[in-house]
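My main concern about presentation is that the manuscript never shows what a single data entry looks like. An entry of this sort, consisting of the sequence and the corresponding C-alpha cells, reads as follows:
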Amino acid sequence: MSIQIDVVVAYPIDDEMERVLGLAEAVGEPVTVTFVWEGPEEAERAVLVPAATLALWEHWAPTAYPTSDVGEGDRAVVEEPELAHPAEFGAFTLFRRRVGRRTAVAREGVVVAELLDPDEAHWLQEKARNVREGFMDPKQKAAFEEFLARQASRADR
C-alpha cells in the first residue's frame, strides 16, 4: 500500500519547501507536489520520492525510463541541457539535472529525495513492483521446485 499526498506549493519559499521535504522524509513515501508559479506560467507537477524509495524502485526496475521518443528516420530526439544553479530552501538544496527532468534534493550534502516527473515516478513504481513480485530468491525457488516435485501428476489423480 502506498500513501498519496497532494501538496500545493505557491512560490517555493524556504518554510514551504522544508515542510514538504520533511513530510516526504517522515512518511517515506512519494509525495505529489504542485508548484504554482507567479505570473502566466502553468502549474508544474512533480513527485517527491525519498532517496531510499527511489533506490529500491531503480533496483527492481529492469530498464531505465525512456527519456526521448524516436523521431523521423530512427533518430532519437535529443533534449538540450538546461543550465541551472542550485536553489537553496532552508536546510535543503535542489540540484536540477542538466539533462532530464529530475531534481536532486540534498540536506547537508546528502541526497534525501528526488523530484521526478509524475509519469516517470509511476512507470518506475509499476516496473519495480512487477519485477519484484515475480522474483524468488534461490532458497525460495529451490523449496518451491521441491514442493512441485512431490506433487502427484495429473494422470495419477
In short: The CA atoms of residues 58 and 64 lie 8 Å apart.
